[in-house]
Amino acid sequence: DCLLSxxxxxxxKRQYQQRMIEAISRQWNLLGSQYDLNTAVNTTVVIEYSxxxxxxxxxxxxxxxxxxxxxRGLCEQSILxxxxxxxxxxxMVSALGGQNQDVRITFHYR
Length: 110
Hints:
Elements: E1 2-6, H1 11-32, E2 43-51, E3 57-65, H2 69-80, H3 90-96, E4 101-109
Antiparallel strand pairs: 1-4, 2-3, 2-4
Helix pairs in contact: 1-2
């Protein structure tokens, strides 16, 4: 279960954000299917990353994890391997001022 807890906001940015989260979630499930994650059940990983106006990652950090090393690593890899997320629309650049944006995602192993 992959939940966005803080993102880009506003209506015209939601489609961009939705595509980004769908890509990350698909990759997380694909990567996870290759491992035995029984020891990661009922754990959580919170990752914050920053993206620039080109959709590239500017930074990434694990804010919290009570998961296994594998569980935490799969969450990081699902973000790293799906970036960049695409150029921002003109409306997004205008609204965000072209500044890097922080996104926080919480991954729940169930």
